[in-house]
Design brief:
Blueprint: E1 6-10, H1 11-20, H2 24-34, H3 40-57, H4 70-81, E2 84-90, E3 93-99, E4 104-111, E5 114-121, H5 126-133, E6 147-149, H6 151-158, H7 162-171, H8 176-187, E7 193-201, E8 206-217, E9 222-226, H9 230-233, E10 236-241, H10 243-259
Helix pairs in contact: 1-2, 1-3, 5-10, 7-8
Length: 262
């Protein structure tokens, strides 16, 4: 049994666990994506090293058909059984809520070189897990006013070069709230964060993006970029939200979708 129903694995160990549990294609996809091994000899070396790491972690049990302890094997099968997932992205970091049966889910966090898994329920304070992931605490701060852009204006700023953004901020051409957003955008290396709803089936090797929403972290709050009126009014709205309000909103959308019948 896994202690406290929590598991920590490097990507290499996770790939080995996938293979030992019979999910070879998922393992191969990660190996190819990360270029862990490009020849048969390298693949054998990689597999031996990963299995040795699992042994050192205490996840190895030679008395079982998979050579994995029961708790880890159960977690792996639950991951692939889950079809509804919510994924939050923050730079190179990823947080995924894998819906299970009823009100249970597996929460997976990937930061640095390690994946962490834990069991959670719908009535747990899930917004706090998202706040921790985005490294934000809920606090009383003055939020800037929201604003909107049409699609052309959005394309112009999103394609702007660093020096052009610097000039806009320096010259104070636009309202202060837009300059605050642009400065956050520049500090985030001209990238937006996002959370998305995914429908996946390992048995059919299919994955469908059901919904995606874009975010941008600022100092003490989050920007939510709302595309819901782009077709009707050609408007994209930018709203500054306190962390708890924003992340509780994500949880509401996620759980509402999880509770819907397939």
């Amino acid at each position: 049994m896994i202690k406290d129903k929590q598991i920590s694995l490097s990507t290499e160990e996770l790939v080995a666990a996938f293979t030992l549990c019979g999910y070879e294609k998922a393992a191969a996809d990660i190996i190819n994506e990360r270029q862990f091994a490009q020849t048969e000899e390298q693949l054998v070396t990689f597999s031996n090293q990963a299995e040795s790491l699992l042994n050192n972690r205490g996840y190895w049990d030679e008395t079982r058909s998979t050579n994995l302890v029961k708790g880890l094997e159960s977690f792996i099968h639950l991951l692939f059984k889950s079809e509804k997932k919510t994924r939050c992205v923050y730079g190179n970091h990823v947080l995924i809520f894998h819906q299970l049966e009823g009100d249970e889910m597996i929460v997976q966090t990937f930061k640095g070189m390690e994946h962490r898994f834990e069991l959670a329920k719908h009535d747990d304070p899930l917004w706090g897990k998202i706040a921790s992931f985005y490294e934000l605490e809920d606090s009383e701060i003055d939020l800037p006013e929201g604003f909107s852009l049409d699609s052309e204006g959005f394309d112009l700023f999103s394609q702007a070069k660093s020096e052009e953004v610097d000039a806009i901020i320096r010259d104070q051409i636009y309202p202060e709230m837009f300059n605050i957003f642009l400065n956050d955008y520049r500090n985030n290396h001209f990238e937006l964060e996002n959370f998305s709803l995914l429908l996946s089936s390992y048995s059919r090797d299919e994955s469908e993006l059901v919904q995606v929403n874009f975010l941008l972290k600022s100092k003490g709050f989050m920007w939510l970029i709302d595309y819901s009126l782009i077709e009707e009014k050609d408007e994209i709205h930018f709203k500054a939200m306190a962390p708890k309000e924003c992340f509780e909103g994500i949880v509401y959308v996620m759980l509402d979708w999880y509770k819907q019948a397939d």
